[in-house]
Structures are given as structure tokens and as C-alpha cells.
Amino acid sequence: MQLRASWSRYTKVSAICLLVAAAMDPGGVMLAGAAPTGGRTGKAPAPAAAPEVASGASAAADVSGATAAVIAPVPGTSQRTVTFAQLGQTNGLRLRGTEGSGDVNFGIRLDQSVASALLRLRYTYSPALIPDLSQLKVYLNEELIATLPFNKQDGGKNLVRDIPLDARMLSGFNRVRLVLIGHYTMECEDPMHSSLWADISPQSEIVTSTQPLTLRNDLSTLPAPFFDRHDNRDQSVPFVFGAPPSLAVVHAAGVVATWAGAIGDYRRTRFPVSVNAFPSKHGIAFVTNDTMLPGLDLPKVDAPTLRMVSNPNDPSLKLLVIQGRDAKDLETAALALVSGRAALSGDATRIAELQQLPPRPAYDAPRWVRTDRPVKLGELVDNPSDLQANGYMPWPIRIQLNLPADLLTWQNTGVPMDLKYRYTPPVKPDDSSMSVSINDQFVRAYRLRSAGASSDKSHMLVELLSDGTMADRKEVRIPAFQVASRNSLSFQFAMEPHKEGMCSQTITNAARSAIDADSTIDFSDLPHYAELPNLSFFAGSGFPFTKYADLAQTAVVMSKTPDKAELETVFSALGQFGRSTGVYADRFEVLDTTQTDRFKDRDLLVVGGKDAADLLTKWGKNLPLVIDQTRRVMQAEPQGYRGDGATGSALAASRIGPQRMDAVSQGPLAALVGFESPVSSSRSVVAINASSDDGLLSVVDAIDTQGNAIHGDLAVVNGDRTASYRLGKTYFVGDVSWWTRIRYHLSSHPILVGLVALLAAFAIALKCFGWLQRRAARRLEK
């Protein structure tokens, strides 16, 4: 009886094992989420052809074939594919050691519901790994969803695996974590052995099939759905007008454009313009009582008003309506949107009163590092965990430093940094170190001392009894010549693991390191003084316009009746300013090309085709380039070849241009031109000039995609190529002491400095000679 009972239990267990095995693919990947592959429709998807995989990877082919139906098109859904590189992992994931891991984050928009999702993993692993002991674990939001086996014949090959992601596990923010479990020997092994590796390609993809969700009309959801923080793609925010906008209406829309650029942060923002036509996506409409959009049935208002309504052409799309009696009301409503968003709720809000903030001081942009006092590194990160690292060879701790472009680093002794850091101390003296770099250029390295070892009395070494870490402090000076307007400050910890013998100890990933948030960096000794025009300043940070984050000393100059391309170019440029400063701007002026009497004491951004070309031609013959629909006039100063001060590039020395060339051409051409304002000295003009409407937009695109190629006072954009030149005169802006100014300008003329020194020495010698002669004469008289 006991034998039969045992045999019965055995057969039941065997049957269960067979059922479990049948639910697994031949490669050993459990098809997590395979049951709901039809998404929320509940229909069984049709089989689809498997994508190509590496030869010999039969398991990968099986998995791809089994899950390809997950991303089969479903009526009413849209498919999006995003790579790991687009999600921030530009170099992919490098998994090392017995338990190496890496993360990639992705989001789902608030106005979308996921019908199905797929992780298409492209990876390679070490041929030395033992298949029976090694695998790759895949987690979604900390839930294990798949385990990928390692076959001997596939080691070192580029493999592709499709892994379904259960739509029910997805939320607005999601994390995919990959963990390598690797072993290369059945006996004692070194957990840090070089053969323990797996590389995840940056071209790995996350494919989602989504359905639109109809959101309620509620202003409290702003900035969604027009901007969704979980969507890392470039933004496109259509601007809709009920009639061709006046310059005052353009100003109101420009305020919103700077706000959208600021909240978009690293995302590129564009503003397609339409008049009397509803957009095909979420958009922002600017209407008055006299310029209502046809088909938009809204009552007239007696005060600035904000509304959230559904697009009449598609109820799943939203329109944010900025409404007023006239253009002045639109400006008030736009300012209420960008400054008082936290107080908005419901489907409509009437603005009874609004007081504008006082003007902002210079150089106070939230995304710029303060230059009037030491700044704590904790102020420069979003989360304190960004200053911490785990492991013996962790990823570098990186801090972004955005600075005003006009900082004068000439002959500066360096930027002081009071650096405090903590780490798990080595058990004995070794070569563990912490190195400091800026813009991937080495600055300094420091050895990490073992517990209790401190022969150097010039620094502090304290043992923190609470967590067993050590704290150290160093005074670092970053060479000023390595500092640019955009900087990446990085700290790399490298610790040596210790083992007395092959099997005497198991090494865990217990090493911890951190930069203290109280560490400071101080740029206050760098004065503001720069040689202009330098279009690299404009492309990098919008300088000189963004010197005041509210654009208080900026005027946008455009045609009196701008077309759609000109409007989109103006809004995109203003969005770039907001992206640079991190805050909306409301104190700029919008003028047409005939209002030259209001150009005084303003930095001018000139945008347009023929009207702009006529204004530039009227201003004089010394401009680098003027473009009309068919005519191009290019001129250079007689001094010709000179450098523009661009750092770190062989292109810093600009090319030679002709003294004058007047040509007629039918081909498209666009340019970004910088020069000193003919109206006010030491004021700047940057002109976006083109022979066609599409050319205007190509300049804005070049600033985003080819910003490193833009410098000098002229950048010519022709298709996907950008060439920069230095052709005109330069001028200086800023405020430094007279002694620094003299030394700075004389430093570029060494021969003149030598002659002045000789003349000074000769004058001193004559003075001494005369004094000696007079003294000798008095002695002889006695």
C-alpha cells in the first residue's frame, strides 16, 4: 500500500511537471503574460512570422515566433518602438561579475492605455559561461518575468529574444532590470573574473501597442496631456489661432512657448501653427471674442479665461483654450497659465486679477549654476541618490553644470571645489581610488585609504560608526580652461576586492560610495566678460538673450504679417530659451521690422525672410551674410582669418571668406548670423535668415542637432550640413576691472607687450640716469 501511494504521488508530480514544461518554450523562457497576449480585446491574435535571429540561436527563434503575435497590429491601437539608447542607455548595459545588473526606465503616457507590450532584447554573453549555472534574469517593476538560458553554441553571438510584457503590470513609470547570473567554473571562482560578462545592445527595443484614453476636462492635470513627463520623445505642441495673430497675440503665445520649452527640459519642442483649423493632436488655442475658431462653440468672456475642452474633430484629443476679450487679455491668461498653474482646476478658470512678478536679476536662471556664491552639489541634483554608487567599479557619479557663457576663465587659477566623500574602506592598503573629471577630461585622482590609515595630516579622515564607512575631504581646483557653458562633472570610484585565497572568502557587492551633498563648488571668482559675436553661445544656452531668464532686455523682430513658418520659428526659438533657463519668460517684446525706434538698448532676435533681409540690408554693408529669395550677399572684414575662441575643437579657427560676393541662386539656403547692433553699442543681434520658409525651420533644427558645429558670427545651413565662419568685427560685453581689461587685450598682442615693456624700461633707465647725474653734480659742488 505504501508503495502504491508513493507511486501515485510520483505520477501526479510527474504529470504536474509535464504540464509546467509544456508551458515553457524550448529555450526555457517562461512566456510570462502569454495568456493575455491579445491585450484587452480578449481575442486570440493571429500567428506572425518570427524576426531574424543569429544563426544557431534556435531558442531565440522559438521565443520570437511564440511572442511575435503580441505586437501584431490591433484595430484602434498605435504602435511605438523605443530603443534603450533613446531611453538614456546610449552605450547599452555592461553586466559584469557573478551578479551584474543594469536598469532601463520607460514610461506610458497618461492619455494612453497599453494593449500589449514587448521587450526585444539584443544581447551577447561570454562563451566561457557554464550553461547549467548561468542565465539572464529579466525583471519588470521588480517582478521576475523571464529567465534566459545560456547555450554553449550561442556564446559570443549577437542574439535576439522577444519577451512579452504583461500590460497589467505597466504603469506610468516602469523599470526593466536585467541581472546576469554567471559562472565559469564548477570549483572555486573569482566573482570579478574577466570572463563573467554579458552585453546588452543599446538597440534593444521596447515595443508598445496603445489605445487612446479620453481624459476629463480638468485644468488640474496640466501640463498633461500636452506634456507628459513619462514621455521621453520630442514634444510637438500645436498652436491654434482663430485669425492671423497680431504681434501682441504672438507675445502671449511666446510666453507659453518658453514655458513649454522649460518643462520639456532635454526634449526638443516644436510648435506647429494652424489658423482656423483644429490640430490632429492635443493643442493650445488662442482666441478672442472676435476671433473664435469655427466649430468651437464657446461663450464670449468678460475677463481672461482658461478652458480645457475636447477637440470637436476627435473627443479623445484636448484643447487648452486661452481666451479673452482682446490680445491684452490673452497675455494675462497666458501668464496665469505659466505662473499660477497650481491654482487651476475644473474645466474653466476666470482670471479676475493677476500681478506680475518683478524683473529677475541677471544670471539667475534656475538651470544655471549660481556664480555669486559657492553652490552645494546637492542643489544640482534632483535626488540625493544621484550622488551615491554601489559596487567595486560602479558607474560614475555625474553632475550637470550649466554656466553663463560669458564667464572669463582667462588666467584663472582654477575653480575651487570643497569635496567631501564617503566610501566603504578597503580592509588593507591598496590601489583603490576616486578620480575627478570634467567633460571627460581628467582633473585629479585620490587614493582611498584603508580603515584607520591616515598618514596625511592635511585632510580629514573620520570613521562613521553608524554604517562602517569612511569620510574624507579634499580641496580640488578644476582648471578653468576645461570649463565650458555646458559641463559634466563626474566622480569615478574604483575599489579593489580582497581575497586571501580562491575559496577562503566570498566577495559580495557590498562596496558603497557617495559624494556628500554638502560639497561645494565656487564660480564666484570668474568675472563676466566675453568677445562677441559667438554663435556657439547662442546655440549652447541662448546667450546673450538668456542673461536675463525673463528675457527682459530682448526684442523679437519679425514681419508685420508673419506666415506660419516664421511663427513656428519664433516659438521654437523661444522654447529653446526656456529649455536653457528652466523658467518661462514674459518680459520680451515682439516688434516688426519697421519699429526700429524701439530697438534701442535691446538684444535683437531677427526672424524672417524678405522683410528681415531688407532690414539687414538697410543696416549696412558689413554684415557677414544677407539672404533674399534669390540673392546672397557675403562679406568679410579685411583681417580675414582669425579665431573665435571656441574651445576644444580644431574648428575653433574659422574659415576665410571672400571680401565681398554678390550672387543670385535658385537653391535653398539658410543662415544664422550674429553681429553688433547698429542701434546700440555692445548690444547683440542674432538673425535667422533664409531663402524659403522651410529654411527658417532648418536653422532651428540645426541648433538642436548640430549645435557643436555652430560658432563664429555666421553659420550657413544647407540641408543636413552646417558650416561656420568668422567674417565680421567683434566686440566685448561684460564688466571687469580696468586692469584686467588691459591685461586681457594686451595678451593677444605679445609683440606690442614687448615693445611697451622696452619703452617702460628705457623710460625708467632715463629717469634713473637723470637722478644719478643730478646727485653727482651736487656732490661735486660740495
UniProtKB/TrEMBL annotation:
Subcellular localization(s) per the UniProt record: Cell inner membrane
Superkingdom of origin: Bacteria
Main location: membrane
Record GO biological process: cellulose biosynthetic process; UDP-alpha-D-glucose metabolic process
GO cellular component: plasma membrane
Membrane topology: Single-pass membrane protein
Pathway it works in: Glycan metabolism; bacterial cellulose biosynthesis
Alphabetical list of Pfam families matching this protein: BcsB
Swiss-Prot/TrEMBL keywords: c-di-GMP, Cell inner membrane, Cell membrane, Cellulose biosynthesis, Membrane, Transmembrane, Transmembrane helix
Membrane-spanning ranges: 751-772
PANTHER family (alphabetical): CYCLIC DI-GMP-BINDING PROTEIN (PTHR39083:SF1)
Family assignment from sequence similarity: Belongs to the AcsB/BcsB family.
Subunit-structure text: Tightly associated with the cellulose synthase catalytic subunit.
Its job: Binds the cellulose synthase activator, bis-(3'-5') cyclic diguanylic acid (c-di-GMP).
Protein name: Cyclic di-GMP-binding protein
Lineage of producing organism: Bacteria, Pseudomonadati, Pseudomonadota, Betaproteobacteria, Burkholderiales
